[in-house]
Write a structure and sequence with these properties.
Order of helices and strands: HEHEHEE
Shape: globular
Oligomer: single chain
Length: 85
Amino acid sequence: MDSRTFYATYAGPPPALVFIDGDHAYPAVQEDIGRARETGAALIGGHDYAPGTPGVIQAVEEHFPRATVQVGTVWMWGLPQARMP
């Protein structure tokens, strides 16, 4: 299902992980991150944090300016500081 359907129907406990890798345009990534945060997800991450996808970079940096971990083009937020590479 698409992310809008998921967030509109999800009624379970906070997910352990939300991984975002769909529409790479800024508005879509911004919305996905905002909705993931609303669920109380312990970890939020995604793919394509790279120069070719500036919408991803902009949305991630707006939500998580100091907590972004980059491994290749994957970003994560929510890991304890001691475990960040």
